[in-house]
């Protein structure tokens, strides 16, 4: 069944309330949205003790589950939202407040005929459903982006962070009750897996699903809904060390790409090394990473250059594996073209890097590697909405339509066409006036307000 007809008990109301809230949010002023975000930050600060107590309980339970073999260590690493991470959350809200409003911007201005003016302007997508594992800070980042972009939001976090998510949501709910003109149902939280199954059937009222989590989660959601899904299934990021490079710089980039936070989707999983520098580079890398207890899954040509104590022969599956731990697959290649071919065949089109001093080789890599992020002499860990200056991100998309890479405010709007006429009808324009199709600079009418001023002086 389509829309809310197929939704489980309670879910139809949540979806319909979100749709009604989205219709109100679409017309909110920038000031009203920013005021709501300021209140959200205020409530987070006020309720910080409760939030961190809930987070501590989730972490204790998670650590016990890891000890019992019931939870992956990478999930527990992502649970923390205390200390510096909490401060980063607060700063992220300030950054989003400071960003331009993505709604109501003019992208196209065309005079179709005398007195007949066409404009393409940005507008919210509508209702978003975000399903995420661990990472309770994602609830704050996504809620802030949704509010600023005028979208209603339904949040579903993982059971491993249920206390943290509820405490963070309670702060947001308190802020929404105090925010003039902002519906209290602009952001809603659901808790159970059964509710997710029902939500995914609500294609009448939910416009976009964004999953953040494991490969299994993302693929399960894509297979279970007719609602468009924005996201990535794996973070198989590669770094290629070219024959022409600064070896010490390459070591630093590889170390940061892998060990800055190895449980992240933008962490290095595959290392490709040109055969001309393998014998000199790999021992340097192995020495640097010894303190991190990194394990290597190495092909036959890289095996002799890595420490035997921490190296195993690689299988083909290793080059398709997102380890999310201090382990990497290593392969020696004969050329940059071979590296490009390997990445396009084995990677997940997320983020990949070349380390080289040859600008022409770099440009070839950047042009032909088919990924959302392609980097020259920079760590893959830069693939992040906060680091890109987006304030935050709802996720990183490897999709080929609508939005790709870290999805911030720009990825949460679509557009509509506004046509202003004076009684024009197609028959008369075609026969009497003729189409002029004068393309004007949209910067002359950058916002809806300026369009209205031109049309209604």
Structure overview:
This protein has two domains: 3-231 and 406-411, Aldehyde Dehydrogenase, Chain A, domain 1, CATH 3.40.605; 237-385, Aldehyde Dehydrogenase, Chain A, domain 2, CATH 3.40.309. It is globular and about 80 Å long. It has 15 helices and 17 strands. The longest helix is centred in the N-terminal third of the chain and has 20 residues, at 48-67. It starts with 10 loop residues before the first helix and ends with a helix. Residues 1-6 have low confidence and may be disordered. It is an alpha/beta fold and 457 residues long. The strands form four sheets. The chain has a seven-stranded parallel sheet with strand order 10-9-11-8-7-12-13, sandwiched between helices. It has a four-stranded antiparallel sheet with strand order 16-2-1-17, with helices on one face. Strands 5-4-3-6 form a four-stranded parallel sheet, with helices on both faces.
């Amino acid at each position: 069944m389509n829309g809310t007809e197929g939704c489980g008990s309670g879910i139809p109301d949540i979806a319909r309330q979100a749709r009604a809230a989205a219709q109100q949010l679409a017309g909110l002023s920038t000031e009203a949205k920013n005021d709501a975000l300021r209140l959200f930050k205020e409530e987070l600060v006020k309720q910080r003790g409760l939030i961190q107590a809930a987070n501590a309980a989730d972490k204790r339970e998670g650590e016990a589950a890891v000890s019992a073999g019931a939870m992956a260590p990478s999930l527990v690493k992502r649970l923390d939202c205390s200390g510096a991470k909490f401060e980063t959350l607060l700063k992220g809200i300030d950054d989003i407040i400071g960003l331009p409003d993505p709604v109501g911007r003019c992208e196209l201005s065309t005079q179709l005929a005398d007195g007949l003016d066409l404009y393409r302007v940005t507008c919210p997508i509508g209702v978003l459903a975000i399903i995420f594992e661990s990472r309770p800070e994602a609830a704050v980042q996504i809620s802030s982006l949704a509010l600023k972009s005028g979208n209603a939001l339904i949040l579903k976090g993982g059971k491993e962070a249920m206390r943290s998510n509820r405490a963070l949501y309670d702060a947001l709910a308190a802020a929404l009750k105090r925010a003039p003109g902002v519906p209290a149902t602009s952001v809603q939280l659901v808790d159970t897996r059964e509710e997710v199954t029902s939500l995914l059937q609500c294609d009448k009222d939910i416009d976009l699903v964004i999953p953040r989590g494991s490969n299994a989660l993302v693929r399960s959601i894509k297979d279970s809904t007719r609602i468009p899904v924005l996201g990535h299934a794996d973070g198989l990021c590669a770094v290629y060390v070219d024959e022409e490079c600064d070896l010490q710089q390459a070591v630093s980039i590889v170390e940061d790409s892998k060990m800055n936070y190895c449980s992240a989707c933008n962490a290095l999983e595959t290392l490709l090394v040109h055969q001309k520098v393998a014998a000199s580079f790999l021992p340097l890398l192995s020495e640097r990473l010894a303190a991190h207890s990194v394990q290597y899954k190495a092909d036959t040509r890289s095996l002799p250059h890595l420490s035997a104590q921490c190296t195993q022969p690689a299988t083909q599956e290793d080059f398709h594996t997102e380890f999310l731990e201090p382990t990497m697959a290593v392969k020696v290649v004969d050329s940059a073209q071979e590296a490009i071919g390997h990445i396009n065949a084995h990677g997940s089109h997320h983020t990949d890097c070349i380390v080289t001093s040859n600008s022409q080789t770099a440009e070839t890599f950047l042009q032909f590697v088919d990924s959302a992020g392609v980097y020259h002499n920079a760590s893959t860990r830069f693939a992040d909405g906060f680091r890109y200056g987006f304030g935050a991100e709802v996720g990183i998309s490897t999709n080929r339509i609508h939005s790709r890479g870290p999805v911030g405010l720009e990825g949460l709007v679509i557009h509509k066409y506004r046509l202003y006429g004076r009684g024009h009808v197609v028959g008369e324009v075609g026969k009497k006036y003729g189409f002029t199709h004068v393309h004007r600079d949209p910067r002359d009418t950058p916002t809806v307000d300026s369009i209205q001023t031109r049309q209604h002086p």
